[in-house]
Amino acid sequence: MRFDYRRMYRLSEHVSRGRFVSCADEAPDFRRRRAQRLAAAAKTTDLFPADSAIGTGSVPSPSICGQGREEDKAPTYPEAAHPEAAHREVTNSETVNREAADCETVNREAADCEAANREATNREGYYARETRITYASIAITLLSWIALSWDTADVLWRRLLQGEFGPTMEQAIFIGIIQGLIYGNFLYQFARLGYLRRRLAHRPPAREELETLYDSDAPSLAVLVPSYKEEVAVVRRTLLSAALQDYPRKRVVLLVDDPPAPRDPADRIALEAMLRLPGEVHSLMDAAAQPFIRARDAFLERGALGCVCARGEAAEIARLYAQAATAVEAIGARYSQTDHADDLFLDIVIQRCAAAHRERARDVLSAGVAAALNRARIEREYRRLAALFSVELTFFERKRFVNLSHEPNKAMNLNSYIGLLGGSWREVPRADGLHLEPAAYVCGSLHVPAADFLITLDADSLLVPEYALVLITEMLRPDNERLAVAQTPYNTIPNPPGRLERIAGATTDIQYLIHQGFTCFNATYWVGANALLRVAALKDIRTSVRERGFEVSVFIQDRTVIEDTESSVDLVAHGWKLFNYPERMAFSATPPDFGSLLIQRRRWANGGVIILPKLLRYLVSSRQGSSKMVEGFFRIHYLGSIAVVNVGLLILFGHSFETSVDSPWLPLTAVPYFILYARDLRYNGYRIGDLMHVYALNLLLIPINLAGVLKSLQQALTGRRTPFGRTPKVSGRTAAPGGYVLAEYALLVYLLIACCADVAASRWASALFVLANALMLAYAIKAFVGLRESWEDLNLGAAALRPVAAPSVSRPGSKLSLRVFPGPGAPKSALLAVPRADK
After folding, report:
1. DSSP state of 544
2. I need a labelling partner for 46 at 20 to 30 A (CA). Which of 106, 207, 725, 773 fits?
């Protein structure tokens, strides 16, 4: 069974609307048959005169205050012999009409219910079946591990008795590497089991529960979108997906981190376009919101006068929802589909919103005809309509102000704005530059409203419309007062055009399953592409540092380049919890080429070794016993696995395992892992054969991961922070530093030499293993890096070492310039230089 995000959304909509129920609970067949009988009776009796309002399906206007227009009044029957009989005829006609009008809706809902039930049954069957397979896989792996451990320990014991110090140390290192790899094997399988168990137990909240937030003042929400040298089209998609969140009180703030006074004319033009973008989106949303705000105010006036007609209000609300669908489609029509990210944006944001509004219009109209709308429901619908497009969009540039942090990373960009929440501020020019200082409200030039919750959203990410509503509802549950972070780990944007982007995205989608499984064992990590944060929790872990002589508040730690991971440890150490909501509601871009992927994965590999001591202190200080041991089992691996696995693989490739163990149990421990991984790839929409491509990509990433680990060690030893490497999100190809390209070829040569050594020593099994990895790496270099691209990057790297400057513009203070090559058909003069970090 494969994952299809469109089918998943349709199913989740039926579940949230309360349609996913057993037939015994609501008896849809009985309702359908009853409606069909009434419809048949209506066709054979003259209860609906052609000129009657009921026969035409019209409803009273809400502006009549319940009196009804002449054509909306109950039909009369002059041929009736007695008034009582005529009255009974009219009453029966209204009853039959309501049932008949509801017939089509009942049939549609019953069909949707049956489809949702079938889909859910299939999915529950899939999850139950995969759970059994996972249990069997864990059992096989456990037995193989026990047998392998016995064999390797036996070899170690015999060498120790023989007094062979060198071989004994060699065997001990081999055992450590194998045990580390099997540790990751077990962790993946248990995380998979946790994910499956959570999916089986998950029941999305009903729409009625979610929308209670519209009945009163909902908690305030601010969506923060940090941006650095992004393309306007990419950020526009993100801002619109945030602005169209189905939530009553929301603000969207674009945190622009570009240098405020760029010297390059192209950078200046790009910055001006970026600063105009929030205003353009705000104007678009405000124009769409005005009709609904006026309609809400008009209803409140009618309500104050006691002039509310339920059927008339239902018709007006249905018309407004249809208008809202048209408004959303008009917003989507302004943007052309140029890539797969645009396709996803139109699908999960624009089309999903429009379809939901039209479905809501039908439901409200049906409820109005069936006299199922009360005053509270009507008012909620008007409040929701008024909030659909009501959003404030603005931007903020922290680097304009001398006394705010200028550290070149996303964490301090967020921290600078979080520290301003709930205050009034004024700009004060001083000798050293412009300062932002507290001020009374009447004197302030910048007023930052307080917020109860924050959504941090990367500038290349997309959220489904119900993201905020669902997660805030989860936060507000009585047993979640100490829930600091709620998120759905992001999925990659589907249907990418490039091979590398598709395979790198596959690893991201597998990580989604792993992170969901972590929550089952209370080991959730905040994944920074998107998250809902409780402001009170951030204030609880707030610290202060001095930067350039100014005191700066730190809510999200920036000591490492994986700020979300370290902040996760800080939160759990202060008694807060983190939670992954078990649905796919966020998508983010995957680097499309080797140069940009290198920057992202090197950053991911950097910092775990530094954070690990803090995690160990938290685990040791806790007294929760076995539950904390289980949590530590997952958390420790997450921080230390990149260092252990990549160093271990390098040693393993150069060491002949035939001298350490002669047992079939070694490969058997890995077989269940690869089988489950292949099944998960297929479930996420990939091919089973992509398992080999993922393996090849992981080999390609060994030098990059090791570089990230070395930077962590360098920071731990010297105390100097590693500059934050932002992933470029630009069109064209990002060139990779020549040293990294050379490292890939050096690794290939290392594998070939190790293979030749094994062949010379007649270690055929080891030689075959190393040769297979060498071939996989060679394929990865050709498919994911490119031979021509490798040559270009090596030449650029060599040119950068010469005293003559390279023919590209490098920003002062930047340690490394990553050049972006134009796409196919672009002129050669379009070569751009993108600095790795803004200093």
Report:
1. E
2. 106
The pLDDT assigned to 79 comes to: 36
Q: Are 733 and 785 spatial neighbours (Cβ–Cβ below 8 Å)?
A: no
Q: Which residues lie closer than 8 Å to 606 by C-beta, 6 or more apart?
A: 560, 561, 562, 708, 709, 711, 712, 722
**pLDDT classification of 117: cutoffs 50, 70, 90:** low
Q: What burial class does residue 320 get, using C-beta atoms within 10 Å of its C-beta: 0-12 exposed, 13-18 middle, 19+ buried?
A: buried
| C-beta separation of 838 from 257 below 8 A | yes
Return the number of other C-beta atoms located less than 10 Å from residue 111's C-beta: 12
Report the sign of the C-alpha dihedral through residues 164, 167, 169, 175, in that order.
negative
Q: Which residues pair with 580 in a beta bridge?
A: 487
pLDDT score of 110: 61
Largest CA distance in the chain: 118
Q: Three-class SS of residue 503?
A: helix
Work out the end-to-end distance of the chain between its first and last CA atoms, rounded to an integer number of angstroms: 48
5 token code pair? 């995000």
pLDDT band at 129 (very low <50, low <70, confident <90, very high): very high
Residue 660: burial class (beta carbons within 10 Å; 0-12, 13-18, 19+):
buried
What pLDDT, on the 0 to 100 scale, is given for residue 122?
79
And the tokens for 273? Answer: 């376009």
Which residue has 């921080």 as its token pair?
A: 639
CA separation (Å) from 11 to 8, 187, 204? 5, 30, 10
The two tokens of residue 113 are 């219910």
Distance CA 473, CA 250 (A): 15
DSSP code for 331? H
Strands 453-457 and 530-534, how do they pair?
A: antiparallel
Residue 98 pLDDT > 90: no
CB 390 within 8 A of CB 384: no
682 to 150, 239, 499, 695, 699: CA distances (angstroms): 35, 32, 17, 15, 21
DSSP 547-612: ETTEEEEESS--SSS-HHHHHHHHHHHTT-EEEE-SS--EEE----SHHHHHHHHHHHHSSHHHHH
Report the share of the chain in percent with pLDDT over 70. Answer: 79
Cross-sheet strand order for the sheet of 491-492: 461-463, 586-588, 491-492
Amino acid identity of residue 799, one-letter, is A
User: How many C-beta atoms lie closer than 10 Å to residue 313's C-beta?
Assistant: 26
Cβ-based neighbours of 397, under 8 Å, separated by 6 or more: 256, 257, 258, 260, 275
Cβ burial of 126 (10 Å; 0-12, 13-18, 19+) is middle
Please identify which residue in the block is written with the tokens 């990057």. Answer: 793
Long-range residue pairs from 326-329, CB within 8 A, at least 24 positions apart, any chain: 326/354, 327/288, 327/389, 328/244, 328/288, 328/353, 328/354, 328/357, 329/354
Structure tokens that stand for 752 in this block: 């070939």
DSSP 8-class letter at 67: S
Residues 6+ apart with CB under 8 A from 839: 408, 723, 811, 812, 813, 814
Note the pLDDT of residue 554: 94
Q: How far apart are CA 517 and CA 195, in angstroms?
A: 4
Q: For the chain, how many residues are written?
A: 839
pLDDT over threshold 90, residue 387 = yes
